[in-house]
Design goal:
Rossmann fold; two-stranded antiparallel sheet; 13 helices; 18% strand
Length: 349
């Protein structure tokens, strides 16, 4: 079992599996979450595909506007960051749409080097890039017609949650920050999931450095591909990876979504930890996690270090595992209600 898990987490140069894109094909906007918008209707929440540039690289995004949106009025806005391996059409879009239904203008964007956004090598996943992507969403949405630039909030899911905390640490334009099932990518890439690979840090750093050398001659090495069968996935020891396999490759598959990341990215990932500067968060903070989730330790540990704000809360979803917070209706509804309460108190006037 341990060998299988290591193969899943550390594999490089593996063939991408065929993803069933039928669900994405059935929606004109490529959305794969339940009850997603299929057409723009006057008087209802609408979706607007947009693009802009961050550091000269094209970003593909979706803006959601509230029912009866009037660009001459003033609205608060929320930027939504997707999980590692995810794209804007999955859970990030789900919550962007739900928040728009509460009266916010929202934006969900594909990280650069991933999804429908530009950037080479593909699947580069560096913390500085991901954080700048979120700051870039703030740049863009502040100028969107009807947005009050003084009322910008941020929500991040999974890896996007860790990077959203990183963005809020340095960007006071973000007035309130929330996370769902926060995943501290740097800590996991360095220490292993649940700190299980502490004895191989230098070995994996050496592999990442070698991969960087090979990139200079056009040989791109990749890690993270879950090229396994359904039966193998069911036997994985952690719910995060078991459930993640079926969410990303079966029930909510999208052709742009993959767990791949360049092996060289580990040089940056292993040198970053969102906990290092949690005291820099001075905004109101809400961190949501499943109470039985095997990733909950990351939320708990980061929250303890958020000493710069007195307005902070952990909200635990009873009975929820990490991936279940993305799509299970009874859990999503609880999370949406809590987000409405939080942003309504600290963001929306």
């Amino acid at each position: 079992m341990k060998k299988l898990l290591c193969a899943v987490l550390m594999a490089s140069m593996m063939t991408t599996i065929n993803v069933n894109a039928a669900t994405a094909d059935q929606n004109p906007f490529g959305l794969v979450y339940s009850n997603a918008i299929t057409q723009n209707v006057a008087g209802k929440v609408n979706i607007h595909p947009v693009s802009y540039q961050v550091d000269g690289i094209r970003v593909a995004a979706n803006v959601y506007t509230p029912a009866n949106y009037d660009p001459k009025k003033s609205y608060p806005a929320i930027v939504v960051a997707h999980p590692n391996g995810g794209v804007k059409e999955q859970v990030a879009g789900l919550f962007a749409e739900k928040l728009a239904g509460m009266g916010y203008i929202t934006i969900a964007a594909d990280a650069r080097y991933q999804g429908a956004s530009g950037g080479l090598p593909r699947h580069t996943d560096k913390p500085a890039n991901r954080i700048e992507d979120i700051n870039g969403m703030v740049d863009y949405i502040r100028t969107y017609p009807g947005v009050n630039p003084e009322e910008i909030g941020a929500l991040g899911v999974c890896g996007g949650g860790g990077y959203t905390l990183g963005a809020a640490q340095k960007d006071p334009r973000i007035k309130a920050v929330a996370t769902i099932s926060m995943f501290n990518s740097g800590r996991v890439r360095k220490n292993g999931f649940q700190d299980s690979q502490l004895d191989s840090i230098q070995q994996r750093l050496s592999q990442a450095a070698e991969a960087r050398t090979l990139e200079k001659v056009g040989d791109i090495r990749y890690s993270g591909q879950m090229n396994i069968t359904d039966e193998q996935a069911k036997k994985l020891p952690f719910a995060l990876y078991r459930d993640g396999f079926f969410y990303y490759f079966r029930t909510h598959a999208h052709p742009n979504s993959t767990f791949l990341y360049t092996t060289s990215s580990l040089m940056d990932l292993m040198n970053w930890d969102v906990e290092d500067h949690m005291d820099m968060i001075h905004q109101p903070l809400l961190m949501i996690a499943g109470d039985v989730s095997d990733t909950r330790y990351m939320t708990d540990d980061a929250f303890k270090k958020a000493t710069g704000t007195k307005e902070k809360e952990v909200f635990l979803v009873p009975g929820a595992q990490h991936i279940e917070t993305y799509y299970v209706p009874k859990f999503v509804n609880q999370e949406a209600d809590k987000l409405q309460e939080f942003f309504g108190k600290y963001l929306k006037k």
